[in-house]
UniProtKB/TrEMBL annotation:
GO biological process, alphabetically ordered: deoxyribonucleotide biosynthetic process
First and last residue of the signal peptide: none
Family: Belongs to the ribonucleoside diphosphate reductase large chain family.
Catalytic activity of the protein: a 2'-deoxyribonucleoside 5'-diphosphate + [thioredoxin]-disulfide + H2O = a ribonucleoside 5'-diphosphate + [thioredoxin]-dithiol
Listed GO CC annotations: ribonucleoside-diphosphate reductase complex
Domain ATP-cone: 3-94
GO molecular function, one term: ATP binding
Source organism (scientific name): Phytoactinopolyspora mesophila
Name used for this protein in its record: Ribonucleoside-diphosphate reductase
One Pfam family of this chain: Ribonuc_red_lgN
Amino acid sequence: MNITVVKRDGSVEPYDGYKIARAIEAASTGLDDRVVRVTQLQSELEITLFDGVTSEQLDEAVIQVALQNVKDDPAFDTVASRLLLKTVYKRVLGDYESGDELVALHRRHFAGYVQSGVAAGMLDARLASRFEMSRLASALDPGRDDLLRYIGAVTICNRYLVRGPAGELLEVPQFFWMRVAMGLALNEPDPTTSALEFYDKMSRLEYLAAGSTLVNAGTSYAQLSNCFVMEMHDDIDHIAKSVRDVMWLTKGTGGIGLSVTKLRAEGSPIRSNNTTSTGPIPFMHTIDSTLRAVSRGGKKFGALCFYMENWHLDFPQFLDLRQNAGDPYRRTRTANTAVWISDEFMKRVADDDDWYLFDPLEVPDLTELYGADFSRRYAQYVAAAEDGELRTYQKIKAREQFKAILISLQTTSHPWLTWKDTINNRALNNNTGTIHLSNLCTEICLPQDRDNVAVCNLASINLARHVRPDPGGSIDDAIEWDRLRQSVRLAVRQLDNLIDITISSVPEAERSNELNRAVGLGVMGFTDVVERLGWSYESEPAYELIDRLMEFVSWHAIDASADLARERGAYANFQGSRWSQGMVPFDTVGITEKRRGRPLTVDRTARLDWDSLRTKVRGGMRNATLLAIAPTASIGLVAGTTPGLDPQFSQIFSRATSSGKFLEVNRNLVSDLKARGLWESVREDLLRAQGDVSALKDVTDDLKAVYKTSFQLSPYAFIEVAARAQKWIDQAISRNMYLETRDLGDMVDIYSEAWAKGLKTTYYLHMKPRHSAELSTVRVNKAETSPGAGGHGPRPAVATATGHGPVAGSGRPSAVASGAHAGPGSSRRRGFGFASAVSRPAEDASSGAEAPAHERQEVVEQEVADVVGDVACPVDPQERVECDSCQ
């Protein structure tokens, strides 16, 4: 080929196909059909090149051609990830030839990276003085980067690696993991040993710290906490302070929950100046604008969820906040909304009773009451309203309001449904006040008041990394229980360290962190594990699996915190808590059932020795809370597993994230289909069916049951999985819901069942029709779709998709996408961030020879729907960005 390449230093050299082949060959190490892959990718690359292509464009073009073939075999994703990481290594560490050289470069450059980062004011100065650099450097293992899928590698590069003033990368992934580990071991007696332990777990993707921690740990700005939960009080000074606090917490990359229930209603009198209030809505709009004004870590908008109790007189206006139509000054375009629901309301819905709305100025104590106390006081206010003793109120049917909530949920995915009484009745940290709201992602349940902004610190266990290579058919044999125990206990210690290391610009948050030391250890990869065991998400084995896994995680997390209390002391507010009475999360099921006066329809099986643990926790707990399952929308990508407790969105789909768009193929499904000799014959049909295995006639029913997607599963399965997990969790679960039905009666039944089973919160509702389709192209055999072909009627067009490669990690366009000189036979397509794909002529692509005339097929492009959506996020772009704010 007569093509020249412009190198980074401006010099020019001839294109070297042999060098490219060696790079692809190295990236294919350990994969089957290695030679075939090299030949295929090199030939596809070379028809996209143009004279004067830069070396950066060449690197990215190789990645793109690998990504274009992921639909045929997920192994190409591994090739793409390795190629991307090689570009990162070269930029940060320099050129190398072998794996041994790469290891040596990591170890030789690590101390210098730390020292230069400290000197530049980017890393914590203690990293250079408190650790034995030689021990840390010798533990660095770049081979663990092979655990990263392409989307994980891009996410790390774009979101978490430290960059210099000009945007240049200063870290490679293993430096990043060690930097985070060091940053979380600063307060340990032997920080080097502890850092090595933390590094070993995180670099193996066995557990991951949450997003804010990964961004800031070990840097000069150690804002490591993830979730902040606050309420706005009904006076102008506190409203102004709340805006200020939102600005500072947003700057520090924290996700925020903010209750506005205490703000008086619109039209309520203001005695100080003899005027009337505008109500909470304008203040919410102000904060919504603030979120856009202050970017999170310079990377994206702030993220916040407003909470309001549904007896507030302005609640109907609250429901309209996310509507597209209406006064833009009474809408929130960035902030989310959630409704704080009492048992009293749910009972009135069930009994078809009336529901009354009040002005908080006239009923100020309702926000502090829950359970039977709330019901009694609410009934008194109802009587006072009917007797004319209140200035204003509104009466509606409870079912009418519930349906209005669900209609809003259908149309805007807001407000999320959360249950005030269940949260407060099931709280073990109930001695420090009422819990008035949850957080941005609905998994945090902490009390807060004027003097305390509740703070929680997160990490998540990757369950999929604790499954044996050959899992077998039983839970006991499938899970590496001892490794899971080690991961849980070490993660709790790491989280407890974080509390002493993190900083906050809001004094009330610092105070709450110190007094309560709240942490939220969660899990991800549940569906990944279920699939590997060959079970359906909506099956009793799956329900038993989550039950046993969460019981085990809960027991060891609590035990680890009790051990830390003996080593470091109990948290300040321990006395008077339910912990101090020897209670554990499982005990709150009965408490809630008794106080509600209605049964909680959840399985009560327990398998571990909880009696001995109850005795132990009476002696002290290090942390007010231990467990919470976050959505893990970002760190799940890094871990290469399914987020939180969520099912598979689809088996093949385009995932949109803040780092770009990526084609995802379920590797478990591909593995199972290959084992049955079906993958080659069904993969194109699967693509055309938008990842719906049930549409494939050659796939057996047992496999179809395992690989049902989110909208094919019963919503009651999502509730059952969450209910089994919730009984072991002291906080809550970000429980996404997926519904194909739009029937309001069905939705009333579904969400009522979630309340009946004791769920504390729900998160996004995904309605199937709301998920948009984007157009991509597939190569179609026109003869097969023609009614006259071979005497056959119309048949489905089966073809090879060519338009699914995402943008390379550096953000620069590929050679084809950017080049004005695309070579013959290539095509450039714009839009959606996909790299261009090559339209090959109607030839035998493998040999380059034209097919015989009688076998020649006319190839056309047909547009088909490619399902788009993030497993944890709805379609709206801003909602996608906010969804991964905690993790």
